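User: Just a sanity check before I run the rest of the batch. Below are the structure tokens for the first item. I only need the designed sequence back.
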């Protein structure tokens, strides 16, 4: 079976000259269909860059990065970018650009909004919504695309506790769907990682230092013995 993603010694440098900023270094990993992979690590460790490589928004400067281009992908960001138009229009536009009629796209947008409980806000200006509502609109936008791969970059990091619970519940719906997409998400919320992930990749200074099933990652003795820095992260001593 073709992997969804395969990175071989992949690195990403930002900037030019003798001393570019190395955001990722010698990353090798494979992600298969149906996996739920959490990317964890301290701020600036490379999680966002890795997600952007997987989604094709960043190009590796070293090594190789392959993704299955036959699969439909969607990505959610920590702060979603919504256009200054209606909530319904923000969702319908992406579908229309992919060839659907405008009336069909608007109908699909309303159905997607119903799945996130925001159908009553369909005609509101998307920029006027709360942060939690905007993230739910972004989730609906992804849902409408019927993705086979869903990438999320700290989707609950800037939300209040109530909004975090709502967005995480929607992530659960994605993960537990009958034909669930492959899920790759970055998170600082270790409880969220335990609840959603089947596999955890720990990054530090742009390198993968641990890649383990979720139960093994949270096994303190194993983690301390094999991956000391990751053990400190789980204990909350690295942020």
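Assistant: Here's the designed sequence for the first item:
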């Amino acid at each position: 079976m073709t992997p969804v993603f395969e990175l071989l010694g992949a690195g990403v440098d930002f900037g030019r000259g003798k001393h570019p900023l190395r955001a990722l270094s010698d990353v090798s990993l494979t992600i298969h269909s149906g996996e739920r992979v959490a990317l964890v690590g301290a701020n600036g460790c490379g999680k966002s860059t890795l997600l952007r490589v997987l989604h094709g928004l960043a190009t590796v400067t070293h090594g190789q990065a392959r993704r299955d281009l036959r699969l439909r992908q969607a990505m959610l960001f920590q702060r979603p970018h919504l256009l200054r138009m209606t909530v319904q229009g923000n969702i319908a536009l992406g579908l229309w650009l992919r060839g659907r009629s405008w009336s069909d796209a608007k109908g699909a947008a309303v159905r997607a909004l119903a799945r996130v409980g925001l159908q009553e806000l369909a005609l509101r200006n998307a920029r006027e919504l709360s942060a939690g509502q905007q993230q739910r609109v972004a989730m609906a936008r992804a849902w409408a695309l019927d993705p086979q791969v869903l990438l999320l970059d700290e989707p609950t990091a800037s939300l209040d506790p109530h909004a975090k619970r709502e967005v995480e519940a929607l992530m659960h719906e994605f993960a537990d769907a009958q034909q669930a997409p492959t899920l790759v998400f970055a998170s600082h919320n270790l409880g969220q990682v335990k609840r959603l992930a089947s596999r955890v990749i720990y990054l530090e200074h742009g390198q993968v230092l641990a890649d383990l099933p979720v139960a093994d990652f949270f096994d303190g003795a194993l983690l301390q013995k094999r991956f000391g820095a990751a053990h400190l992260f789980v204990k909350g001593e690295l942020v």
